[in-house]
Amino acid sequence: xxxxxxxxxxxxxxxxxxxxxxxxxxxxxxxxxxxxxxxxxxxxxxxxxxxxxxxxxxxxxxxxxxxxxxxxxxxxxxxxxxxxxxxxxxxxxxxxxxxxxxxxxxxxxxxxxxxxxxxxxxxxxxxxxxxxxxxxxxxxxxx
Length: 143
Prior knowledge:
Elements: H1 7-38, H2 50-58, H3 61-85, H4 91-111, H5 116-141
Helix pairs in contact: 1-3, 1-4, 3-4, 3-5, 4-5
């Protein structure tokens, strides 16, 4: 029994989305590490305790803006990498990078008490950022 499935093209699409996801997670972690190191915490405050971290982020919107910027940049980069990795990945398919990142972020949002504005912007900007990254790359690929 011979099973003929056109999987080669689909495997490359999935692999390119996976590569975009891996690179985007790396970008987010590096940028958030920089955000943590550049933003000074008060002396004696242990941010590993959930209540201390919650108090810290609720009183520091600049810190949250840095986290949001890293999320948007990582999603943009992931969408761009997915499109760069394989030519047949469409802009809409690159949105899967943003969708997976958004689902991962929901777990983070549920674990700590974030402000409402951060919830709205985080959930609203992941997928469009990945689309924008893929669109940015596609404008250069067609020239």
